Predict the 3D structure of the following.
Amino acid sequence: MSEKTNNFINTIGVLARNEFLSRNRWVLPSVCIAQAALESGWNLNAKTLFGIKGKGFTATTSEYYDGHYVQIQDSFRSYPNAASAVVGYYDFITGTPRYAGVVNNADYRDAVDKLIHTTDGAPYATSPTYINNVISIIEQYNLTKWDVRDTKPNTSNSGSTAHNVGERVNYHTIYASPDSEQALSPLYKEGTITKIIAGARNPYLLDDGTGWINDACIGESNTPSVSEDISVGDKVRVLNNETYTGGSFRIYYDEYDVIEVKGDRVVIGIGDVVTCAINKCNIERV
């Protein structure tokens, strides 16, 4: 497997798995990764990772009509980065009635079939080989490993949780996903539990996307983090998902690259793909 292919799979895989584990209505990550690879040509910087039609930009595309391929101009949805494209994909598939057979379908072969054989007959793609192409990518690269829910049950309370949705808690440690073992060290802060996956390693989702915590994360920290000198090219960890202008963003990665530094304003991202600008006090060098 080439470095480009491996990077593509790992990038989309992490993003897709986060959506898969945090949503009540989901699509298998293996299907998401394979579609992104096929639609974009394994290009993380493609204008459209998933080829979703809609308002955005116009491009030439190939469609299969009456037994042969034709070139047409069509409009596609555009997203600023891979993370938002994956969120958009999950929103689109789970929110479009014709793809009901894909949603919460644990059989990747049948889920891919239902992308084409939809409830109203309108397929995701017109290519007669689309189903085989997507399934081939899934099987060639063993993408079903991203579909495993390897969370461990909470035997101490038989699947129940000590905290509830809507409860505001103090926490000193945070995780990127419900099953992550990689602890992150945020600034001491407060957050609201907005979703619970009972039995998960880190069952509590904070503020609809800040990150995930478990019971051991809750409480005051005796060693709050402090800001430090950060330079372009450094790897950093996000401590607080507040943008420089006061907004918020979802944390999809354990580490980000520093793209630009101007005073206390730091632009972070993955490679040269910008995620956001953030105050230096909200990140730490790793």
About this structure: Residues 235-285 form one domain. The chain is about 25% helix and 25% strand. Confidence is low (pLDDT under 50) at residues 151-159, 221-227.
